[in-house]
Amino acid sequence: MAVSPFKGAGENGQAPLSAREATIMDALRLRHELHDEEARLLSELRALRRSQRAVAPDVVALRLTPGQRIADQVAATMGSWRFIVIQSAMLVLWVTLNITAYVRHWDPYPFILLNLALSFQAAYAAPFIMMSQNRQQDVDRREAANDYRINIKAELEIELLHEKIDQLRDQEVLALTQAVQSLTTLLQNKSSDSEIAKNRE
After folding, report:
1. Is residue 57 classed as helix, strand or coil in its secondary structure?
2. pLDDT tens track, the chain, 201 positions
3. pTM
4. Sequence-separated contacts (24+) of 32-39 with Cβ below 8 Å
5. Across the chain, which distance is largest between two alpha carbons, in Å?
């Protein structure tokens, strides 16, 4: 005959646990382990956040290499209206001077030298812009990871506050219960004393 694993003697000579009690104990043990893991994660996130607050934004900007600074400057310059206006004015002046007969035509139609210059500009501008975009993507990924850690920290902090509030509420309920019990005992003692006094009379 098969014997149920929940029958017989329990650990340390205690009464055996039923299936429901064993499930509850396992759930409580798992919750305790998760709570310890969350507490460890919260302490790590707090230390990381303190270290990040200690670093000034200017210090982070100084960590850029010269190539990164040049790439950012080129991308910022070529992505501005000032660059578009200046380049448009230069192109109009170039075409006008080579079409009119007032000066010597150094680049007649179809403006091969101008096309060569613009091709050189595009060939060198594209890698600079790509380098700047790649660095910005790295910055965005780090900021997204930092935001995720901040959200996790905020969630754990809120859970910790809820636990503290629950503990305070449980303590208040326990204190009220003890006060009610003491008052009930006192009332019972008084009623018994009054009954004894009546019986004596």
Report:
1. helix
2. 334 444 444 444 444 556 655 666 665 565 555 567 777 777 777 777 777 666 655 545 557 788 888 888 888 888 889 999 999 999 998 888 888 866 677 778 888 899 999 999 999 999 989 998 888 888 888 888 888 888 888 888 888 888 788 888 888 888 888 888 888 888 888 877 777 777 776
3. 0.50
4. 38/156, 38/159
5. 140
